[in-house]
Amino acid sequence: MAAGVDDDARRILYVLLYAPGGTGRRNEPVPGNAWLHMEAFLLGTGAHGARLRFRSGRSGASSPELAAALGAGVRSGEIEQPASGRGPMRLTESGIRAALSYWDGAGRQLRRDAALVKELLNDMAHSEMTAYMYSSFPGSAGGPGDLAAYEDYRQDAAYSLFRRDKLSLRKSASVAGMGHDEFVEELARRGIPAYSMDQGDLDRSAAALERICKIERMGAS
Asked: What does the pLDDT read at residue 54?
């Protein structure tokens, strides 16, 4: 392990990168830095023996320890990401070998939680992800300006997330900042069926996410 890299951050990073997402395949690429930090934040690292600090910002919560672990992984050749330091990231062959020790040593709950948050966020557009995160964790926003900008796109993001069966009706209405009836009426106006998905599955998924999210705290920075 590179000197100065926090082992908790490296463990969470490699478990997240190795975890399956919506495709069901291991090592599904994470779309970019913002997604990685949001997934680590949502994962609830405090419940899994890690103590990562998170700072609020324009793209949401970010962890300096996680950023350092990612940089070290790229330099070592265990993680591939565009040279710009932006864009999709995934484990290389040597990275997969390194990740397996963390994955095999992780508890079943951590593996399940990592797959759950990766499946949730990986295929969200940036605006969808920030709308979901800002509505759930207002403290992850960098300041009043970020929250004001979020108000401009939160409703469109909520309709899109609901239409794609990413969130339950209740959670989508919350992301939109609307009451249940108002949200259902707007769905009808937009031609989006309000009850076409398996609501039971979504409610169970929402309950699992709420269990994860309950332990989240913004760290001092």
From this structure: 84
Lookup: tokens for 184: 């259902």
Q: How far apart are CA 68 and CA 70, in angstroms?
A: 5
Token readout for 181 is 């009836």
The whole-number mean pLDDT for each consecutive block of 10 residues of the chain, a chain of 221 residues, reads 77 96 94 94 66 76 92 97 93 98 92 92 94 83 73 93 90 94 94 70 60 45 32
Give dist(CA 14, CA 102) in Å, integer: 7
**What backbone phi and psi angles, to 5 degrees, belong to 28?**
-65, 130
- Cα separation values, 59 from 55, 81, 114, 175, 200, Å: 10, 19, 20, 17, 32
The backbone torsions φ and ψ at residue 79, rounded to the nearest 5 degrees and listed phi first, read -130, 135
Residue whose structure tokens are 């769905």 = 187
Helices (H), the chain: 7-18, 33-43, 64-76, 93-105, 108-121, 126-136, 144-163, 169-176, 180-189, 199-213
Spatial CA neighbour of 33 closest among 72, 2, 12, 60? 60
Q: Where are the domains of the chain?
A: 7-213
Query: pLDDT tens digits for 188-209?
Result: 999 998 875 555 555 556 666 6
For 86, counting Cβ atoms within 10 Å of its Cβ (0-12 exposed, 13-18 middle, 19+ buried), the class is: exposed
Q: Which of 166, 150, 133, 132 is nearest to 54 (CA)?
A: 133
User: Mind listing the pLDDT tens digit for each residue in 3-24?
Assistant: 578 888 999 999 999 999 999 9
